[in-house]
Amino acid sequence: MRKKIPVILDVDTGIDDGVAIILAAKCPKIDIKLVVTCHGNTTIKNITKNTLFILEKLKRFDIPVAEGMASPLLIKRPHVSAHGADGLGGYQYENPGFDLLKESALEATHKILSESQEKITYICLAPSTNIANLLKEHPEDADKIQEIVIMVGSNEPVKDGETPYKEFNASVDPEALSLVLDSKIKKTIVSMEMGHTAYLNWKDVYKTEKTNAFGEMLENIFRGYKDYHVRNGIATHDGCTVAYVIDPTMFETREGHMQVRFFEKLGSGVGVIDYDKTPNVTITTKINIKKFKKLYFKTLKKCKI
Ligand code: RIB
Ligand code: CA
């Protein structure tokens, strides 16, 4: 058996975060060392509860969960969420019986990294607040991070005068993203175009429901997902990001330079890619939709309620 990839998952569960957790937890190639929660799609309390709920449904009580930052590094900006007020589209569930670590995400991440004999891949599916905070408080931990794979921004360069579409994770904490982009750690960006192209269409959603009881639950949760970029299906941003770690050959990528540009009229900042500057990231430009959906349905079949 090939060596497993040790990862830390940083989530703001969130409907597509839920799909990402399922893909990672069910993949024999991935060894989830820790899941940390971050503000974003809803309040940190809801996000933590949603994350514990998904892991409990997966019966992955072996995976430690630590609660992270409840608000952005510097500025709290109002934002809407596509995931419903509670983050899982209004899906009602019993309080998970699964306990949280006592340590904060910062303490738990620092502990795992400093004690690990091998470098760990950090998968960020939320605003970059936790990872930025870690690099600020424990810069020495950068040496223990193999790569940051982060769902953020767009792979489209901004034309002069054009204000780029706000991608949620970047726009909620652009200062944190800027700090992460300045780090020397290998960074791979899974851009928003991936989730907008490999979205689950209504046929896929129906097939999800008919696959098994787990799929029935997911279909219920999907009903509350309102990503206004994808009106005829379910955007799969975070699922695509975990899929990149599982099988990078599913993607085409380019080297580019991403930096945060602050747009006052947007009241926020966005990750802006420039292919003419010295690269600081690898960014996805295309996803093999068929391969992604094959992975998604193969994984779903393994989920037993
Ligand atoms: O823009 C998409 C990102 O914002 C995804 O991570 C989604 O979960 C939301 O957090
Ligand atoms: Ca997310």
* Strand-residue proportion: 15-25%
Question: How many distinct folded domains?
Answer: 1
Strand/helix succession: EHEHEHEHEHHEHEHHEHEEEH
Structural category is alpha/beta
Neighbour order of strands in the largest sheet: 3-2-1-4-5-6-11-9-10
Principal-axes geometry comes out as globular
- Figure out the total of helices: 11
Rg over CA atoms: 18 Å
**CATH H level: which superfamily?**
Ribonucleoside hydrolase-like
Number of strands: 11
Distance between the termini: 27 Å
Ligand set: alpha-D-ribofuranose, calcium ion
Low-confidence stretches: none
Q: Largest beta sheet, briefly?
A: 9 strands, mixed
Written overview of the protein:
The mean pLDDT is 94. Helix 4 packs across helix 6. 35% of the residues lie in helices and 21% in strands. The protein has one domain: Alpha-Beta Complex (Inosine-uridine Nucleoside N-ribohydrolase, Chain A), CATH 3.90.245.10. It starts with a strand and ends with a helix. The protein has a nine-stranded mixed sheet with strand order 3-2-1-4-5-6-11-9-10, sandwiched between helices. The chain has 305 residues and is α/β, with parallel strands linked by helices. The site of calcium ion (CA) has 7 residues, from loops.
